[in-house]
């Protein structure tokens, strides 16, 4: 004998539509965190441990790296993942400690604006950087500039 | 202390040792005080006594206006959660000898809930979020006989059945302190108890409730709740399991 009885209360009425940003933010923090461990330690290892170590870092070294598509993609990933990771962390801090809606919106806005500006500027630098400025001292720029 | 030492040799073997303890209690009377203040009391305690016994001694012998909640006094009703030496504990489960008695013992109300008087807080926001997760069995079939469950299915949520709703976890959570909208560990623990119950049919409803802006994603895994729980529930683990269930879409 089976009988069905109604649920004691209607199920959760609030059916929210659209993307659950809170959930995706949480997932993003974990995913980007794991990728950043590899990216940042790889970055530090190549810059500081390989070749002649810390003394190799000068304009020519950085320019040489930024002229290589591999390091361009590496640095772009690092920039976007780290900056959004940090900004999202700051957003949760604001949510935690700022209870007034106005102040909250102001800080969130400032955070979003500065993140966008830094992302645009950083990406612009990575892809438009000129490793061989005209008239530069040949001893200061990357070795491949001589042929130009 | 001098008299206690003089009498010591005369005591029979196995007698419980007595010592004087200073309790510094955070007092607040909404009818008189604008702000809470600390007041200290000296009480003669035995090593078998608990913080609750010290509070009883103060209330019964020294200052009858001291207010605190306690019902069963045996660690199961969950009414005497308080902040003892900066950590959330049950006064009835904390032995004085386990604390450093050479220093004063600080006792105050749990944080994050509105203070009503002395050690009593308004628990309503806490129970409101508890009610919001629908903490009861939702099953469509008529309860004519017992609902059979395997040992493994029962073990799945065993840990979270231990909750006594003392609010020690929720009021130890830094997210809850600053954001009273957050469901808090206790509500998530009690949702977990039904989400992972094979007899329950509304796991998805509860997962939807907790997949909210103020739901499980606010948890910052600081483990304060796991540390505070007087029942030893692995609260942070339970919250993580609910997060996982939301991500995979099923318990």
UniProtKB/TrEMBL annotation, chain A:
Nucleotidyltransferase among keywords: no
InterPro entries attached to this UniProt entry: SQR/QFR_C/D, SuccDH_FuR_B_TM-su
A GO MF label: metal ion binding
SUPFAM superfamilies the record matches: Fumarate reductase respiratory complex transmembrane subunits (SSF81343)
UniProt keyword Metal-binding present: yes
Ranges annotated as spanning the membrane: 33-57, 106-129
Entry GO CC: membrane
Database matches in Gene3D superfamilies: Fumarate reductase/succinate dehydrogenase, transmembrane subunit
Compartments (UniProt record): Membrane
UniProt keyword annotations, A-Z: Heme, Iron, Membrane, Metal-binding, Transmembrane, Transmembrane helix
Name of the molecule in the record: Succinate dehydrogenase subunit D
Automatic annotation (TrEMBL), chain B:
EC number: 1.3.5.1
GO molecular function, one term: 3 iron, 4 sulfur cluster binding
4Fe-4S ferredoxin-type domain span: 153-175
Pfam families: Fer2_3, Fer4_8
Source superkingdom: Bacteria
Cofactor: [3Fe-4S] cluster; [4Fe-4S] cluster; [2Fe-2S] cluster
Pathway the protein takes part in: Carbohydrate metabolism; tricarboxylic acid cycle
UniProt entry tagged with the keyword Oxidoreductase: yes
Residues in 2Fe-2S ferredoxin-type domain copies: 19-113
Keywords: 2Fe-2S, 3Fe-4S, 4Fe-4S, Iron, Iron-sulfur, Metal-binding, Oxidoreductase, Tricarboxylic acid cycle
Family: Belongs to the succinate dehydrogenase/fumarate reductase iron-sulfur protein family.
Protein name: Fumarate reductase iron-sulfur subunit
Organism: Microcella putealis
Lineage: Bacteria, Bacillati, Actinomycetota, Actinomycetes, Micrococcales
């Amino acid at each position: 004998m089976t009988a069905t009885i109604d649920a004691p209360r209607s199920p959760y009425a609030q059916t929210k539509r659209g993307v659950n940003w809170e959930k995706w933010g949480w997932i993003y923090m974990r995913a980007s965190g794991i990728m950043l461990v590899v990216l940042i330690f790889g970055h530090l290892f190549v810059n500081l441990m390989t070749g002649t170590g810390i003394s190799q870092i000068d304009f020519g070294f950085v320019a040489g790296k930024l002229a290589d598509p591999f390091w361009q993609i590496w640095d772009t990933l690092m920039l976007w993942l780290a900056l959004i990771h940090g900004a999202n962390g700051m957003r949760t801090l604001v949510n935690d400690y700022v209870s007034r809606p106005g102040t909250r919106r102001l800080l969130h806005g400032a955070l979003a604006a500065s993140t966008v500006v830094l992302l645009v500027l950083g990406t612009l630098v990575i892809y438009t950087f000129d490793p061989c400025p005209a008239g530069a001292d040949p001893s200061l720029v990357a070795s491949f500039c001589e042929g130009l | 202390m001098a008299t206690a030492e003089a009498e010591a040799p005369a005591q029979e073997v196995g007698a419980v040792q007595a010592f004087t303890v200073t309790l510094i209690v955070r007092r607040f009377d909404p009818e008189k005080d604008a702000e809470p203040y600390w007041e200290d009391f000296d009480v003669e305690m035995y090593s078998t006594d608990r913080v609750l016994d010290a509070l009883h001694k103060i209330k019964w012998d020294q200052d009858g206006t001291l207010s605190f909640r306690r019902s069963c006094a045996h660690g199961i009703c969950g009414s005497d959660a308080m902040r003892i030496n900066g950590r959330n504990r049950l006064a009835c489960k904390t032995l004085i000898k386990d604390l450093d008695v050479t220093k004063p013992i600080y006792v105050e109300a749990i944080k994050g809930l509105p203070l009503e008087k002395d050690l009593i807080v308004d628990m309503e926001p806490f129970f409101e979020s508890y009610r919001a997760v629908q903490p009861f069995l939702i099953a469509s079939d008529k309860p004519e006989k017992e609902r059979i469950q395997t040992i493994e299915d029962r073990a799945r949520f065993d840990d979270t059945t231990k909750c006594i709703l003392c609010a020690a976890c929720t009021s130890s959570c830094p997210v809850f302190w600053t954001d009273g909208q957050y469901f808090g560990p206790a509500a998530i623990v009690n949702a977990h108890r039904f989400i992972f119950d094979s007899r329950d049919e509304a796991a998805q409803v509860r997962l939807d409730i907790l997949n909210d802006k103020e739901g499980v994603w606010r948890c910052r895994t600081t483990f304060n709740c796991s540390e505070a729980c007087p029942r030893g529930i692995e609260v942070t683990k339970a919250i993580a399991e609910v997060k996982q269930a939301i991500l995979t879409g099923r318990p």
